[in-house]
Amino acid sequence: MITSPCRDFWSWRQEMIVRLWRAAVLTGQELEYDAFARDVSQPMFEQQEGFRGVMFSRSGERCLVITLWADQASLETLAASPRYHETVKRISALIQPETTTEVYEVQGGNLTGTSRTG
Questions:
Q1: Which residues are bridge partners to 66 per DSSP?
Q2: Structure pTM?
Q3: pLDDT tens digits, residue range 21-33?
Q4: Phi then psi for 79, rounded to 5 degrees?
């Protein structure tokens, strides 16, 4: 039997949802996008019911936002949030109009950074 912090992480929650949002930043707006993600998007996500975590990544103009949610109901609450809609409206000035969103049920993994080999 393996006992580690990562096993405890997954056992505390029966369900978790990961949401992947992809977009392309307008040329010349990369630093503004990064600041917006840090200063506006992250605090907005953190105030949502069922929020479990966020990661922002960018390679050139391509960006990816990974958010973790307690359950599907949390995503529905996000979608209905006036603050979320205001954030989307504001970020639209920094990105190409085409975006994609994918949602998955989390099946397992390790977010603690703890190696099983010690």
A1: 20, 55
A2: 0.83
A3: 999 999 999 999 9
A4: -60, -25
